[in-house]
Specification:
mainly alpha
């Protein structure tokens, strides 16, 4: 369970960064 939580948290961070970058790009285009 603990190892699964660590893997999940590590996998979530890059996706969140990609979402933030995508939002910033959309704001710049507008």
């Amino acid at each position: 369970m603990i190892s699964f939580a660590l893997i999940a948290s590590i996998a979530v961070v890059p996706s969140l960064l990609l979402i933030v970058i995508d939002i910033k790009k959309k704001l710049k285009f507008k």
